[in-house]
Amino acid sequence: MTYRNARLDVRRAAIIPMAAILMTMMVGMLAFSIDIGYICAVEAELQNAADAAALAGAQQMQSPFVSYYSPGQTQQQQIFLQVTTDTSSASSPIPTAQQFAAANRAGGVNIQVPTSDISFSYYDGTNPFVAASYPNYFPNTITVTTRRDTTANGSLGLFFGQIFGITTSNLTATASATIYAGDVSSLQVISGVSAHILPVALDMNVWTNYANGNLTSDWLTNAVTTGSNGNPQLQVYINGTNTPGSFGLLDVGVPSNSAPAFRNWIDDGSTPNDISYLLSNNLLPVSPTSPEPWKAGPGLKSTLLSNFQSQIGQPNLIPLFQASNPVPGTSYVAATGTGQNATYSIVGFAGITISQADGSGGGLTISIQPSAIVDPTEVISNASPARASQTTIFGTPQTTFVSAKLTQ
């Protein structure tokens, strides 16, 4: 005879409704986890877009920074407004940030950034960020917020959130990027990359007095004229001073006395082979306390005029030298030695652009103005947030920058 356990049958029947309840909960948890994972992924995409936009916008602040602090600048308020409010010029920080944000997608949507989500501030590297204001704080930092909400780009639609009565999620991400500057002490070899260095030298005392706005200094006698943009420009070699020294070209790599070599240096800069030569011969690094003797080239040549003119408006590094006898006037001596044996004591570099080039031969006139430059070969060991109050070796404005950095 077979006996059945009635209690066992009852227990088996109870599992069915319990399993249904648990399955519902498991499906809900699975749906919830899918939506949470999707939200996290989109948040990461928003952050990438904010980072890219802030870094790109910050890069566009370097040149205005230098212009704002350039000697004799009379358009500071216009420069401030161009940086902080201009939305029409493609090279201004706001449109640039918006363009780079739009090149990124978050949740399948190209991210549009309203102007109201872009702000500017000043950061000294230590104290809290301060909102940019004219004339107290020229900005060195841009902050960008990216969104997927009702303000911009639409709220993020969820897959299964509606099970719990939640159909969308509002997401934001924020990034700040700051421009950094410092003194170039050396160069590094990068395959296929040349250093944009002009093969002429500039007295560090002439540069620091000019850059700091001491335009009536004895160092600048007959050296400053007005450029085509209305700002003071500095003549590299001052004609008519009758000061002894080697005023001519400068070898910025493997020594040469041929015009084609200098033409290449003007047009294309110092090659990796040139930089290797400077490093292997201990001509780099340089500083005012450790100057290095770079060979002086021949006198200025008329055949190079068009090459110098081709660099008008282009950022370049110019080597700065410490004069052999640094006394303004007739006793001044720029270089050590004479003729083919003359050398300049190079101590550093400044970022400049040629603003005017004319004349011929020994009367060739090369005038320059400060310019921001980020050269991939430059070595800057003391980079910090760019600011007017920063102590630098060669005065204000700072002209040599590294790539902008995310600071928030």
Provide a short characterization of the protein structure.
The protein has 408 residues and is α+β, with helices and mostly antiparallel strands. It is 28% helix and 22% strand.
Give a verbal description of the structure.
The protein is α+β, with helices and mostly antiparallel strands and 408 residues long. It has 2 domains: 9-179, no CATH class; 184-381, no CATH class. The chain is 28% helix and 22% strand. The strands form 5 sheets. Strands 10, 11, 12, 13, 14, 15 and 16 form a 7-stranded mixed sheet that branches. Strands 3, 4, 5, 8, 18 and 19 form a 6-stranded antiparallel sheet that branches. Helix 1 runs antiparallel to helix 4 (93-102) and helix 2 (62-69) packs antiparallel against helix 3. It is elongated, with a radius of gyration of 31 Å.
For the record, give the distance between the C-alpha atoms at the N and C termini, rounded to a whole number: 81 Å
Helix run count:
8
Number of strands: 19
- How does the overall form come out from the CA principal axes? elongated
Largest sheet properties: 7 strands, mixed
What structural class do the secondary elements suggest? Answer: alpha+beta
Rg calculated over all Cα atoms: 31 Å
Which range best describes the helical content: under 10%, 10-25%, 25-40%, 40-55%, 55-70% or over 70%? 25-40%
